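Section 3.1 - Work completed
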Amino acid sequence: MNRVTHFEIPTDDKAKSKDFYSEVFEWQITDVPVQMGGGTGTYTIATTVATDPTTQMPTEPGAINGAIVERQGRITAPVITVTVDSIDDSLKKVTSAGGEIIESRQE
């Protein structure tokens, strides 16, 4: 079975959202510097469950972590990442089931 492994919550006010999710759900919120479009920015990680320090994967079976991101462009609603055995096979299943590929495959 393919499972959800990551999420991104878009926001118009990142500072307010960081405070909200930290306070209400007790998530650990961490800003991490990243290279973006030729410059640097931050990716805000939302840790909902403990992670293995080596793999950064959740230690609790079935649990996932995610991020809080700026609402912009096509990212206007939550993004859900599903890990699959074959992206090409899964994309074929999406279209044959009537779904639409919004963004092409990326490495």
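Second construct:
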Amino acid sequence: MDAYKTHGAFSWSELSTTDPQAALAFYGALFGWTSADMDMGTGAYHVVKVGDTSVGGVMGMPPGAPAGMPPAWGVYVTVDDADTTVARCTELGGKVLAGPMDIPKVGRFAVLQDPQGAVFNVIAYVGE
């Protein structure tokens, strides 16, 4: 199974934190992760890797984050179409917290909340 092409598969994990460098040092020492930096237009984004495989990312708190928001890991679930999934989420009683919006050269994503309050991200990756 290719998690980046399979609807419903968990495909990415991402840490939003107040101190990305400290987080990278901690997780690097804990798990042996390495990282590669890329500019996402809102500041540095650190792609974390296990060997040569990219498995997630670490970034500073997102623009507009509420004051005092604690660092947190977020998950991405692959979908065939982000806009369709957003519409279906609201039909089922969920909420749209952000998006859908595009990440250039990556895909289209949205931040959603299920009816019980759990927050998750969905993403339709750009085809190769």
